[in-house]
Amino acid sequence: MNLRTSITAICISLLGSASAMAQSSATKQIQYLSGTDVKNTKTWDFQVSAGRKSGSWTTIQVPSHWEQQGFGNYNYGRDNVTFGKNFRYHDEKGLYKYQFEVPAHWAGKEVNIVFEGSMTDTEVKINGKLAGPVHQGAFYRFKYNIADKLNYGKQNLLEVTVSKMSADQSVNNAERLADYWIFGGIFRPVYLEALPIENIEWTSIDAKADGSFGMNVHLNKAVAGREVTAQIIDSRGSVVATASAKTSGSDSLVYLQATVKKPSLWTAETPSLYSVKVALKNQGGTVYETSDKFGFRTIELRKQDGIYLNGTKIKMKGVNRHVFWPEYGRATYPDADLIDVKLMKEMNMNAVRCSHYPPDKNFLRVCDSLGLYVIDELAGWQKAYNTKAGRPLVKEMVKRDANHPSIVLWSNGNEGGHNKELVDDYAKYDLSRRTVMHAHHRPGNAINGIDGNHYEGYYSSEKLVADTNLYMPTEFLHAMHDGGGAAGLADMWELHWNSKKGVGGFIWDFADEGIIRTDLNNMIDLNGLNAADGIVGPHREKEGSFNAIREIYSPVRIMLKELPENFMGEIPVENRFHFSNLNQCKFTWELIDFNSREDDEAGHTVVGEGSVAGPNVAPVAKGILKLRLPANWKIYDALALRAYDPDGKELYRWVWKAKPNTVLLEGLLKSEGPKVVSMTEADSVITLKANGISVSLSKKTGKLVGLGNDNSSKISFGNGPLLVSGSAAFAGMKHFKEGDAHVAEASYTGDLKYVRWKMHPTGWLEMSYEYNLNGKYPFSGISFNYPEGLVMGAKWLGKGPFRVWKNRMQGVSYDVYQSRNNNTHTGTAPWVYPEFKGYFSDIVWMELSTMEGKFTIASPDNDLFVRLFDFYAINGNSPHPELPAGDISFLDGIPAVGSKMGVSPSAVRELGPQSDLNQLNGSAKRRLYFYFGSPSVRE
């Protein structure tokens, strides 16, 4: 390289450096004082005024709640209810100190200190000087300009005093005296932002589906002669439109407008995002530049009609979500937001309500990018902020969040926590003027044409969707323990889907709000019954309602219950996407053979598979999906079908038996054994024995009273059959030889007609019975006793892996499952799912492993429910619902389950047709087979 070339290269390099410096000086520079999130923290000096570790200076990680760092005391917002009127909340104060240095070149800039969230009253000092007035309100971003208080290029001292309880009682009423955990501390990040003296303070975007783009650009000061420009950039990085306007010296607000031809529209199904780069210029030079992401979409609430997005009516498949993680409380980290949104999308939900406060900003970014409709909510749990306290908080919330396309509605507080004087404030900061609603649980609080009344039943909802307002319950089907959630959802969803003014709703709620108590050996505390409300557990463990919701809310709706005799591969399908044709989806099928009882592993073997493009079925239309199955498909046990959305995400998997139970059981029931059955009779019992298995039946009651086999002296299964509904009085027993088998037949008076026991030479005991009931009953069938403590696990062919209720039959499919005995009661520790105990559906065979050996139950008849041991859906004054007598039951009908808002039988029935009692009309017959031993007995 010659000298001239070298000088040229150096000049180019210097020019590039100067350009980069100029560019850097025209953009916002960020310096974090805290960590970026609860998993990436910084150490500050700290002292708490009361409770654990109080009264002396030590250190703490920021951001965090101080309770989770071992300081202070825990409070649940309803402690005044739990502990009575004399209870006093801990008014702890946290004193924070942190030394930091700012670059010398920041002198002459605007420098703000920004708090993303601090709980609750926050006083900030810089180098001993107040940064500004005390901020009141925990969940809101606030900032102070501290440029005149800093020592540039030197050390500075930040001192922050955070009070748990606010000096404004309305703030306490709105945020802290609530039905959720309340904490203290700086729980969201703190950082400095350095900007040019002239800059853009904030923007508000209104981008419509027709491509029209409007933007309010709020400058930090009014200066004449400046130019404000905007470049709209698509996802490929191309500039698709520009806009510009001049400033006046009298107004700090500049309005920009542009048009984009045929923009890609943002919906929850197609979350297309654009970015806008906005610059403040002086004589062609850039003074300040910023950017934001947004989406083109038009949201309309058409009164007495529906909510429309981009001209299409949409229905909300939503859930309520607290910002919460067991280790961290309401402090969070980006992966937690992503986990939650992905789980909601996996349940085929399309909406989330941010209860009961605005979330961290990253959660909204994830909703924007993955596609969820969001209700962003001002805090206010049954009591509202007063106008003085609430007005600045509305401003802080809307200014931060207005440009997120995922937000479709603002909620002005929850369940009576509505200050109506604040309703008009939202539009001051939201150029798109989204509708403001009230999330409420009392009639008469509808606003702006939408009623969000909580916890209505199916039949009262029928009246509401026929009334004047749109109906969208912002809380319904309360999911405490194993109640609510998906129970009753199928009926409720059909009601909203098919009603003009039904908009859908938001299940309460997403996750059990269990906090790891650092004062109680790190146990997870749900505050009794108060916080076990989730569809998933504290660490996002999936409960039975999770998969059921996934099936109910699947936008590919398939209601085929069983394959018809003449099945030729055609499956009726309904498209419940709002914007996607089913020809954008993919379907795959599998032919499977179930693993046998003797196989070491549960599950199945795939013996054939294929794929098929989705049919041309428009949104909300119906059509036929045609599978190209091989001619011999019926020789296999079952057919499975998967549906995938346009992005390749699996929506749901359905499984249908290809063979009847009688064929599926052929190999099991044809076990080899000696062709001899012996019968002995004593005064009180008849004993049948074959293949080393003996069965004793009482001649006085007709019940099974004794079991044994050559490998075990006793098997404790017995004291049955007991009719679980209706009456049965033993009338007598006869026995006789039938071919190479022997039969003992008990007769009854009352509703039970007969029970017929037949011992086969193989050792299989066949029991057939008939009962006759007319009327409505919670359950029907028969029960036996067996000690739960002797049971190690179960293996079965049927639907699973989760238990079911009458009004939550979805989310389970045919396969061979295996489960170890666990004592999980849904919503409480240890959150081991699936639960071992419960009602299990469509059982073909089930093998129980016990301390006394194995025994197997099988049925050639369809629709058998097997009840395993004692369990409950909701624990309260008494566990609900009531169980049949006995320990192991074989049932034709099982009960529905209610929710926290109603567990009485009448309240359960209010959840809809599927939640009613079982209507029985006449005779019911069933055959069961029992084998009281392991396969080795026969060999």
Automatic annotation (TrEMBL):
PROSITE patterns: GLYCOSYL_HYDROL_F2_1. Residues 58-196 form the Glycosyl hydrolases family 2 sugar binding domain. Its cofactor is Ca(2+). Residues 1-22 form the signal peptide. Residues 200-297 form the Glycoside hydrolase family 2 immunoglobulin-like beta-sandwich domain. The keyword Cell inner membrane does not apply. It is an enzyme of class 3 (hydrolase). The keyword Membrane does not apply. It catalyses: Hydrolysis of terminal non-reducing beta-D-galactose residues in beta-D-galactosides. Its EC number is 3.2.1.23. Pfam families: Glyco_hydro_2, Glyco_hydro_2_C, Glyco_hydro_2_N. Residues 302-520 form the Glycoside hydrolase family 2 catalytic domain. Keywords: Calcium, Glycosidase, Hydrolase, Signal. GO terms for molecular function: hydrolase activity. Monomer. Belongs to the glycosyl hydrolase 2 family. This is Beta-galactosidase. It comes from Paradesertivirga mongoliensis.
